[in-house]
Amino acid sequence: MGEVKLIATPQSFPCARIEWALRIKGVEYEYIQEDLANKSPLLLQSNPVHKKVPVLLHDGKPIAESLVILEYIDETWKENPLLPLDPYERALARFWARFIDEKCVIGVWGACVAQGEEKGKAIEAALDSLEFLEKQIQGNKYFGGERIGYLDIVAGWLSHWINVLEELGDMELLTAERFPSLHEWSQNFIQTSPVKDCIPPRESVVEYFSFGINYVRSLASNK
Ligand SMILES: N[C@@H](CCC(=O)N[C@@H](CS)C(=O)NCC(=O)O)C(=O)O
After folding, report:
1. Which one of 76, 97, 151, 202 is most buried, counting C-beta atoms within 10 A?
2. What are phi and psi of 10, to 5 degrees?
3. From the alpha carbon of 13, which atom of ligand 1 is closest?
């Protein structure tokens, strides 16, 4: 199995993705908590390009970017597969994973930080992206079918972190009325094991995001 270490920050959902995957696989790992305000030499050496968490160290070899790490974990530890086995289904899962990060995460974050007349448009854009996920999950318990898979892990931030962004951005996005299937999925997902065992306390996520949101808003208002 080799030595597995995870450089991570508890409030970060890309990092939570990796913890969920390792636990689903039953892989033991050492958690190395990173202080993003004072990045460690280990993080800077392990991810010199982006200087971000998460980084997985497998026998000392670093792998960065949560989607890449998830695929590495799935290929390295075969039990409880995360990606579908069929090549076409795998391609679709990768497509939607990129959609989630490039459209949904960016869209919800954009709506959260937007102010003034930009706000309404930004919220509509985020809702449009979530609409696609609603269609994907309709009729299924999980994106992975009957059990949690790769896409559930990638979309997992919709089960906890989005609520904080809604509160801080003074907006409602993932409501049961507008997105009944996605909302139900998000409630189920967060209650499953091992997901529920690595969810950061809400107040700590509020504090974590508040810093970034205030910073981005201050840049926008100084323009
Ligand atoms: N695309 C990356 C995003 C990672 C990311 O944004 N990490 C944040 C924490 S959630 C970080 O390390 N931020 C530190 C910085 O930007 O300096 C992934 O999926 O791993």
Report:
1. 151
2. -60, -30
3. 10
